[in-house]
Amino acid sequence: MKEQSKIPTSKVRRASKLIGTGAKVGGNYVKYFANKAIGDKKAKEKLDQENAADIYQSLSELKGSALKMAQVISMDKNMLPKAMTGKFAQAQYSAPPLSYPLVVKTFRQMFGKTPTELFDFFEKEAKNAASIGQVHFATQGDLKLAVKVQYPGVADSVKSDLNLVKPIAMRMLHMKEKEIKQYIQEIEGKLLEETDYILELKQSMEIVEACSSLDGIYFPKYYPEFSNKRIITMDWIEGMHLKDFLATNPSQEIRNRAGQRMWDFYDYQVNELNLIHADPHPGNFLFQADGNLGVIDFGCVKRIPKEFYSVYFQLLNPFYHAEDERLRALYYKLEFLLESDDKETEELFFNLFKDSMELLVHPFTNETFDFADEAYFDRIYKKGEELTKNKEIRKGGKARGSRHILFINRTYFGLFSILHELKAEIKTTTSFKLD
To answer: How many beta carbons lie within 10 A of that of residue 255, not counting itself?
Structure first.
C-alpha cells in the first residue's frame, strides 16, 4: 500500500482539500450525465465507484476526525451506496499508512530516540492503519509488541474539522447551532479523548483488569514505559479481523460462540461497570478460530452517568411499554419529548420514538435472538429511510434526546451490525436490574 509522507494540518489546507474533492465529485457527475445520455446502463455504478474513490482518497490523506467519519459511516450499510461503504470500510484498519521517516520523527519528539534505539526490533512498514494512528510490530526481549503511533497534527485538527462539518450537519438536520451544540460537544470530547494516548492507556488497563474474568475474551497487556501521549505499546495478540474470519467459513457453532462473547462483553461493561467500549467497528476485534474474541483499542470509552443509566435502560422494561403514559413520562426524562412541545408535536414524536425504540430493544425482549434475521434489519433500514423523508419531523425543528444517548446508540448499532455479519444466534439476556 502506498505510504503517505505528509498530512495537511492547518485549517486552510484541510478545507482546501475538501473543496478540491468537491470539485472532483462535480466532475464525476458531469461524466455520469454524459454516460447516461448515451444509454450507459452502468453509469450510476461508475459514478458511485468514482465518487467513493475520490472522497476516500481525500479523507484518508486528511486522517483524524475526517477519516473517523468515514469509519463510522462504513458501519451503516444503508446510509450510502455500496461502493462508498465498501471503500470507507478500509478506514477501520487498512487506511494508507504514514511513511517511516514521519514515524521516526514522532519517536524522537516523544522519547528522544528512534524506534530501533528503543526496541530490539521495529518493523518499518505498518501492519494496520486506521483514522487516528497506525500499528507497527516490534519486539523487546521475548515480548512481541504492537506499537500504535498517532498521526501528526490529528489532535490539533479535531475542532477545526468539526467546524467544517457543523454547517453541513445543520443543513441536513434543519437545525440551528444552539440546538445541536450539546451533541457537537459530545462528539468533540470523544474525538479529543481518542487522541489522548495517556488517557487511553489508563482506560485500557482499567477495563482489562475489570473484564479479566469474562469467559473467552482476551486482551493485550499494556506497557506504560513504552507509551506516552502520542505512542502506546501493548502485547501483540493473534487473531483475525472479521472479514478474514468469515472467509475461513466458520461453523454456525463458532459464529454463535464469537457473537455470544461479544454480547456478554458489552452487557458486562454497561451493567457492571457503567461504561462502554464505544467504538465497535470490526477493526477493534480479533477473532480466533475457536470463536474466542480479542478486544483492542479503548480510546473511545463512554462513561454512563448512574442517573442516566437508571432511566435509559428502563426502555428494556416491559412495565413501561405496557402503558403509554408511563412510557411518555420516561420519554420526557430522556428528552425525547420537550416541555415546549404542543399536543400535536408531542404525539408525533411520542409515536416516532415508540416505534423506533421498540425496534431497537427487540433483541433484548427475547431469551435468544438470531441476528441473521434479514427481516429485522430490513425493518431498521426502512425505518431509517422513513425518518429521513418525514417532513413533519423537520418541522419539529429541535434536537431531541440526551447527549448521552449519542454514543450508546451508536455502540449498539455497531454491535448489532457485527452480529448480523456473523449471522450469530445468541442468548440476549441482560444483567440490567428492572424496577
So the answer is: 24
Query: Nearest CA to 265 among 411, 125, 53?
Result: 411
Which residues, 6 or more positions from 221, have their beta carbon under 8 angstroms from its beta carbon? Answer: 208, 234, 235
CA-closest candidate to residue 349, choices 412, 395, 408: 395
Distances (CA, A) of 49 to 23, 73, 87, 102: 16, 16, 9, 31
Residue 208 CA to residue 356 CA, distance in Å, equals 34
Q: 183 is written with which cell numbers?
A: 451533541
- Over the stretch 73-121, which tens digit does the pLDDT of each residue have? 544 555 455 555 555 555 455 567 888 999 999 999 999 999 999 999 9
91, 117, 133 - which closes a domain: 91
C-alpha cell at 326: 408511563
Q: What's the distance, CA 390 to chain centroid?
A: 26
Confidence of residue 384 (pLDDT cuts 50, 70, 90): confident
What is the domain range of residue 69? 11-91
Number of separate domains in the chain:
2
User: Beta partners for 148?
Assistant: 135, 232
Q: Does 38 fall in a domain?
A: yes
The answer to whether 9 touches 152, Cβ cutoff 8 Å, is yes
> Distance between CA 261 and CA 422 in Å, rounded?
12
* The three grid cell numbers given for residue 19, joined into one nine-digit string: 473543496
Type of residue numbered 242 = L
- Report the alpha-carbon distance of residue 242 to residue 223 in Å, rounded: 26
> In the prediction, which pLDDT does 91 show?
46
Q: Which of 251, 248, 235 is nearest to 295 (CA)?
A: 235
* CA distance linking residue 143 with residue 235, whole number of Å: 7
- Structural domain includes residue 249: yes
The one-character DSSP state at 97 is: P
Neighbour count for residue 28 (Cβ, 10 Å): 19
Instruction: Tell me how far apart the alpha carbons of residues 70 and 131 are, in angstroms, rounded to a whole number.
Output: 9
**DSSP codes of every residue in 350-389:** HHHHHHHHHHHHGGGGSSEEETT-HHHHHHHHHHHHHHHH
In a domain, 17, yes or no: yes
| Domain end (from 71, 91, 111) | 91
pLDDT at 241: 92
